[in-house]
Amino acid sequence: MRALFPKSLFPALMGLLAACAVASELRFPPPEFETDYTMPGITTPPPRSLAMEYVDTALLVTALGLAAWLVHRRRSRRGLVALSVFSLVYFGFIRTGCICPIGAPQNVALGMFDPGYTIPLTALAFFLVPLVFSLFWGRTFCAAVCPHGALQDLVLIKPVKVPLWIEQGLGIVPFIFLGLGILLAATGTAFIICRYDPFIPLFRMSGSVFGLTLGGIFLAAALFIGRPFCRFLCPYGALLRLGSIVSRKAVRITPDHCTQCRLCEHSCPFGAIREPVKLPVTPNALAPERRRLTWLILALPVLIAVGAWLGSKLSVAAAKVHPTVALAEQFLAGDKAPAPATALPTPETRALGRAAETAPELIAAASEVRRRLGIGGWWFGGWVGLVIGARLISLSLRPNRTDFEPDRGACYACGRCYLACPNERVRLGLITPAEAAALQAHAPVPRPDAKPS
Amino acid sequence: MTAPSLPSARADAALWRPLRATVWITACLAALAVLLLVVTHHRAHAHDPLKSPELAALKQRLLDEPRNEELKQQIRDLDLALRRSHSRLLNFYAFGRWLLLGSLVSFVLSAKAWGKLRARPPAPRLSPDAAERFTRLVRLARLTASTTALCTLIALTAIVVAATSPLPSAATDREKLLARLRGEEPEAPPLPPLAEFAANWPRFLGPSGNAFTPVAPEPLTFDAASGDGLLWKVSLSLPGFNSPIIWGNRVFLSGGDAARRSVAAFDLATGQRVWEQAVTGVPGSPAKAPEIPESTGFAASTMATDGLRVYAIFANGDLAAFTLDGRPVWSKHLGVPQNQYGHANSLAVWEGRVIVQLDQGDADAGLSKLIAFDGASGRVAWQVPRKVPESWASPIVVEAAGRAQIITLAGEFVIAHSAGDGAELWRVQELHGEIAPSPIFAGGFVLAVSPNDKLMAIQPDGLGDVTKTHVAWHADDGIPDVTSPVSNGELVFLVTSYGLLSCFDVSSGKKLWEHECDTDVHATPAVAGNRVYVLGGKGKVVVVEAAREFKELATFDLGEAIFASPAFREGRMVIRTAKSLLCVGTPPASASGGTSP
Amino acid sequence: MSHAAPNPSSVSRRQFLREGMRLAAMTGAGAFVGLSIGRTGARENYVWQIDPSKCVYCGNCATACVLKPSAVKCVQAYEICGYCDLCTGYFVPEPNALNTGAENQVCPTAAIERKFIEDPYYEYNIIESLCIGCAKCVEGCTRFGNGSFYLQVRHDRCVNCNECSIARVCAGDAFRRVPASNPYFLKTSAH
Hints:
By secondary structure, chain B is α+β, with helices and mostly antiparallel strands. Chain B is built from 8 helices and 34 strands. The longest helix of chain B is centred in the N-terminal third of the chain and has 50 residues, at 69-118. Chain B is elongated, with a radius of gyration of 37 Å. Chains A and C meet through helix 1, helix 4, helix 5, helix 11 and helix 14 of A and helix 1, strand 4 and helix 3 of C.
């Protein structure tokens, strides 16, 4: 029957059937072969096996433990570099990312709010394990396990100091990015943290022009600015920073006591080492600061309320990111005539064709997305207000430091500062205590051009 | 830090130059790799070998020359070359990224080594006033944080303010929209019944397209200058050759020039202008109006109404819908029609849809199409391409052979489309020249005029090309070139540009009589009751009896040039002259029993 | 540090605060794990796949994938294939002749192999290394034939992005996350 199917009917059929795009299939009965023909089977190459995912999780835990040991016990920068290279190669170039801890908050959010998506255990582990580690040992994940951090850390060739006030001022950006990422993920709108991840395209050595360009820009910046992504954008780093602030152990530069020689101060390319600050002797000197703190604490609920109110209005704009809403809006605004039948269909016309067929469902779905974003917007806006207020409050607290210490939140535990400390060198037997004393005595000599600042 | 590096100072010096060279070479290599990848990607994007237009063109040519073996070979060669270049491209990407990775790794390694050689041991300065520095630092940091926060809030506000969406936010609006999309339109009034459609003059040449009304207007003669026999007369400022249409107590017409296009409504009883609306702000419509010959103008196409809305199309490609009381409903730009005299096909309506016959350009240009718009929303219900050149004939929608058909004339063809989805039903290839006369449907035949050539009657029950099978008769005498035939269902009347009026029998095509009106005629005549009105280009009006025997009823001069066909309702005749709009009829008191068939 | 603590009460207060917050964070994390595990019970991962019933053959699969060529390829469901001589997935509309000449093939990369089996049946195989996932053959086969050609994400190539870049632009909204243990939509005769 197929062989007799007249050729001339084909175009006519094409025209007739063009209207019913998703017509019934199985128009021709399966053949009955007379020869002993055996039908080939369909091949279904399996995805990455679950076992491999468990291997990944085990490797993650091992690497985190190893990093914690190298940071706190072994105090070895060299070991951390070796572990970084491993993480970069395995978690970066071999595993090529997904699902990584940076993107995992989105999976968690989606899993909490989308009944159709239950978060896989490995993704949950990738989200939680580094966080739990940060509660005990600080940002050991950033130190040598995260391929993003490892890449930026390893390519840093000539660090330029970013003024601390810029860094602290911009410190709210990762938190806002995190909030936005969770808002859009929880509503099933988009995974923007993954979409704007600069390094995954580099690990895959393939990707969109935009992704690769972004990666190139961050990589070029990372040659001269220490870990630009980690410091100014990484949303998971924002979470780890919080964990690290309350961690049981923090990086200590000197193995025993600090001689205040300032030799370590410049060894940190991330500007995380803080010099000692003493509380003023007279308590009255603190009065203006106390007043400011009180005001800021009082302003915090206001900031949260303003943010929440503003955030609730975001739904119209934010919903445009959702493909369904975008299509519905294009369809409603569109009114553009569908392209003439002679023109070849484009993905846009096909999508609009689908929109026309399923318009009521599409509009209903789009409205639902927007409604959920409206609710989520309250939370997101409140979060932005909280982040701003908390940052201003934290910048109004006066620390009390007696030694040169890394900032608990900002320290990536990379281990660069260890060997800068003469006491550490003595501990390792690299120099004698006498040499160390000479170094310390020699070091803080004011240079002629030095101006007291 | 200085001490351990001293003994190796000499070795360092030896390494210095080669390391520096390596840094530069690897950096250049990496830059080169990036450049190569970018250039290749750019070129591949612009000339994707898998989307070659040359290959598509050759394949298209093969459809016309299926026996051309040389062409086939050419296609095969080109196809092979293109697939090779695609595969080369993929290989190049693979090579380029490994080159880039390799050079980057070497660059970083050598730069780090070189940097280590260049590194100076730290010489920290004494800086005792840590507390002061700290205060300054946090003050600056608070400032930056506040600035960042302010920027964030401003950005959020800007996003909130700027975001607009056609998707309604309010639940009630959304429900309305959903109801409309589901096709349950609770508040949309139903279309008027067909009887009402027939009682009005909803489109060019009346409800049936035959320019026929059963009731003749009284009195027989009338005069524009004195006002004798006229109910009212108003002067018109709207330029345009389109004919008036009537719905209920309203007369609608459109007008336009390069500066302005508009639609106006007049009261049928008094002639008072009720509203006038300019068609402006049509999305996509060019700001500068295209050049349109004055002989046709911007408003040659007659409007149409479905009883809920009126629709108008202009020669610049703007199509607009208004409610009967003048509220704009929607408008859209269909592209400037490519037409040497300017677009002139009038609109048709069917079941709440507006039918636009947008024939333009050459037949091969593939620009012509027939489009049906949903009257309420303006959304395209369907559209079909037509391989025909520009034409000036208006489509009619008829119920014939058990199906609703849209009859169109263009180029060499009479083509019937299904009104439901635009699919082509049948076609006759018998026309020649520039097609201006519109088709009509009378006595069970589709009557079409081939200008200055013949009048033919087609049985409308065919499928496919029915040129040889369904043409019932044709007549070759007294054939017009501009005006359309008119008919009362038994007789067909034709009038030529130079005023020769002929009468044919619709069932046989036999010519019954002819009459020289002795005037030039641009407007299609009309049949009202037992009268045929011929309206001359210089204002001469000839009224003859619509009968198998010729009988002149009246000849008089209206006093104003006429280019448009008249419209009728309930014994009134509305005529658009070059300068004014006038209504023939008797005052209501005596109108009730004044007319006789 | 011990010898230089000027204000032990302040230090211990901070220490206490830190301990408390850590404890709270740990409790929170524990509660979260309990909640998640109680909710899921799913140990499986997800992978992306195309629902062929929603595919509108828009061609985005060939262009939007982060891989080049795409991880989406056409597959042939032999069980429902009609083995037609005039294969509407293989041939262009109005083919010049029913042979393997380039002028007759719809596939831009010639990734479909046409093999004579017996009169009048031909077998069609997808050569995956050549297929770019453009769906040109899928359109022909689905609209005019049995729909045995259809697009699937091939998991030997897919890097399983957390957010699939094709899913984002899919004109038919056909991409979905499916359990990794059942990663393909299989068309069978029972279909």
